[in-house]
Amino acid sequence: MQQYMPEICWHDRKGILSVDFHPLVKDGRYRIATSSMQKEVRIWEFGYVMPRNEHVVAFLANMACHNTSINVVRFAPVATENLLASGDSEGRIVIWSLSDQPPAPTPDDDMPVNKENWVRQRVLNHEEDVSALVWSPDGKMLASVGHDCNLLVHEVSTGKRTICLRNLRNFPNGITWDPRGKYLITLSKDRKMDILDCVKGTKLKSIAMAELPARSIGGLHAEAKPYRLWHDDQLASFQRGLQFSPCGELIVCPAAQLEVGTQDVFGVWIFKRTEIDKEKPFALLPTEKATFVVRMCPVIFKLVDGEKQNYSGLPYRIIWVALTVSQIYFFDSQHMQAIGYIDNIHYNSLTDASWSSDGQQLVVSSLEGYNSFFRLTMSEWGEVLADEQRPPPPPSPQLIKVRKRKVKTKEEAGGDEERSSETDNALSHAMTQGTPKHETPKTPKTPKAKRPAIASTPTSTPKLTKFFPRPQEKTAENNEAGAAQPEPQVITIGDEQTENSASTAAKDDDSSVQFIEVRRQRRVELTTIEP
């Protein structure tokens, strides 16, 4: 393995936040995209010049569309699409596409002329910082998580939002897409890993703690008890980049932390796809410091001959790297210890890493503004396994339990038939003989309470002759009768009250006078009651 660090100003000596390889390798030339605390995304090309194998980097394009620092850049996995996604600290995601038209002249005289024309195709939005992006295996969908606690999935060609899962977690900052197109897995700052259906967005599993057996790790004895699996929010990193293996059989997660007594054990957790329903990892690979990024090599190797060790049980070998703030670990699926280790290659913290599609190049970025390139010789790492030699993958576990209908035995089925026949016979008898009347028990009547005695009433009961006034004909007799009609009086029915007593009561009681006046204003005529 050879290491190169070109001393060029990738982003005017600003810290580089993300780097990614283009999937197409042409004539030994590789293209990468970088982003930094500046507002631009830049495309570069590098290769090796014989006979000294000099590492040569060339500038291709500078794309300006963002208004703030760009946290992540990711190329689409399909080489023919030539698509790039970039997410910034304002929640904006820009989809770039390579155009056949010649590039326009750059407005900045200090920048070199663009050799490729990358145009803005579409803009997608989060409400806050975009922390992680991932493309679907076919390059048609783009999933993103951000500081707004949302998970969004968009169809790139139309911009249609197919999944919008709000309030997923507190600051999810890692996401990976299943190579088989079934799951989306996120890792968040609140120490939880969520497994979701990538089609419907349904949350299938959430893993935060696990019951682990007693083990001795690095001279520390871990008791058999439930443990929290992930590092807390004090992890000094903006992302927690977990990733599926190229075959989809393993899920390797950074930010592993075990609190053993007063000591902390760091490393990476490994989950098996076939055992993901158990909600616990099957292996821990310890590291000296906390890890925050895992990147899988896209090439699959054969098992090393002559070695019995194979803790994963896979019939082939997978290689990946795990980053801490200053270290690079190389792991594989066959050996329990690291197969490679690199330390102190940059003065500032490491930020991101990416593999080329042929597995021969690895690039690591840092906050000091430089990239480190590692050239790998495939024969030194093992023999490559051809695609046709890969065994068929096992089926995925059923993460959502479906309730099955209980199959009845013959005895239960016979009992049901007897009960149904009895019910049919009763119905037929009721239809032929008539339904018997059901007599309800009668409730006894309660004796009526006797009313209190009423005071003696006068022998002559008053008789009400007129209640509603009727219109009278305008005749001379009526006019004479109306002139001789006495003043209307209020008389209580059932009481003997003379004319003098009624008039006296009306004079003493002001309310009766007012009442009479109101009745007069309403044009209601009160007539006398004849005894």
From TrEMBL:
Cell compartments where the protein resides: Nucleus
Keyword DNA damage: yes
Polar residues: compositionally biased ranges: 423-434
All copies of domain CAF1B/HIR1 beta-propeller, residue ranges: 1-379
Ranges for region Disordered: 386-513
Keywords: Chromatin regulator, DNA damage, DNA repair, Nucleus, Repeat, WD repeat
Similarity-based family: Belongs to the WD repeat HIR1 family.
Matches recorded under Pfam families: Beta-prop_CAF1B_HIR1
Protein's organism: Mesorhabditis spiculigera
Coiled-coil stretches noted in the UniProt entry, renumbered to this chain: none
Protein's UniProt name: CAF1B/HIR1 beta-propeller domain-containing protein
GO annotation, biological process: DNA repair; DNA replication-dependent chromatin assembly; nucleosome assembly
WD repeats: from-to residues: 63-106, 123-164
One GO cellular component, as annotated: CAF-1 complex
Cross-referenced SMART domains: WD40 (SM00320)
The organism's place on the tree of life at top rank: Eukaryota
Biased composition (Basic and acidic residues): 409-422
